Description:
The chain is an all-alpha fold. The chain is 65% helix and 0% strand. It has a single domain (2-184), classed as CATH 1.10.630.10. The protein is built from eight helices and no strands. Helix 2 packs across helix 6 (111-142). The termini are far apart.
Amino acid sequence: ANVISALMFAKRFDYNDPAFQAMVQRENDIILLTGSASVWMYNFFPWLGPFLKNWRELIKNVESNMAEARKLIADLKETLDPEKCRCFVEAFLIRKKQLEDSEIQNLHYHDENLLYSVINLLEAGNDTTANTVKWSLLYMAKNPQIQDRVQEELSRVVGSRQVQMEDRKSLPYTDAVIHETHRLSNIFPIALPHATSKDVTFQG
């Protein structure tokens, strides 16, 4: 969650921060509720919404996260420096200001779109990132020779410092392992299967 927060708001939370823990818990609950049968029923019969406990809980969690995101966006608006862009929200706000100053009408750069973009990235990014890490650890525990190659590549390229985005082009094997993890595993509870459940013969 802190990785997504740093990308969105240029801010990392203390892991013991009650507000951060509550936000992460709400995001986890949102993912679980989204996959529940009653929420799927709502998709077919929207008029059932007020009668479905899971749907009401889902909406409550989303609204709480939106209120938290509004506060974080408002804080960034107050400290915005067009010469120093640190995160997604600031990049969005700077571009929005540039368009407004040049009197260009753009339907995409407005506060509501910013809010929903942030919420989508927070709610979709946290769970899938954590699940990718969990599945990667599981597959590497089962395949220690792959774990050894990933560790060797990381030690050689990154060493003791933090991994950076620019390292990706120098980590082809690690990148391939992450992509294979996405292919093999189901990192989102309502995603489609990525592998057959039994052996098949294709075209003879």
